[in-house]
Amino acid sequence: MALSEGTVNFDAIVELAREAGMLVTLDGQIGREKYESIVGSLTAFRRFIHALHGSLAEQFTAS
Asked: CA–CA separation, 1 vs 13, rounded Å?
C-alpha cells in the first residue's frame, strides 16, 4: 500500500520498486537518515508505475 492515513509510506513505495525488479541500494547512513538509490531498466520502471498505480487505485477505492 503506497498511502497510509493520508501520508506517503515511502517504505512501501521502495518495496514496490524492488518487486518490480529495480535495484535499491543503501548509499550511506548518517544517524537515522538513509541515503538510497533506485535504478533499473525502463521495463522495470514501467512495472513499478503499474504497481504504484494499482496500489493507489486500491487505496482510493477502499476509502
From this structure: 8
β-bridge mates for residue 26, sequence order: 36
Dihedral sign for Cα atoms in the order 34, 48, 15, 40: negative
Distance, in Å, from the CA atom of 15 to the CA atom of 1, rounded to the nearest integer, reads 10
**Under a CB-based contact definition with an 8 Å cutoff, are residues 12 and 1 in contact?**
yes
Which residues on adjacent β-strands are paired with residue 30?
33
Phi-psi region at 5: left, alpha or beta (left = phi > 0; alpha = psi -120 to 50): left
- In this structure, the number of other CB atoms found within 10 A of the CB of residue 16 comes to 20
Average pLDDT of 5-25? 89
For 30-58, the pLDDT digits (tens) are 999 999 999 999 999 999 999 999 988 88
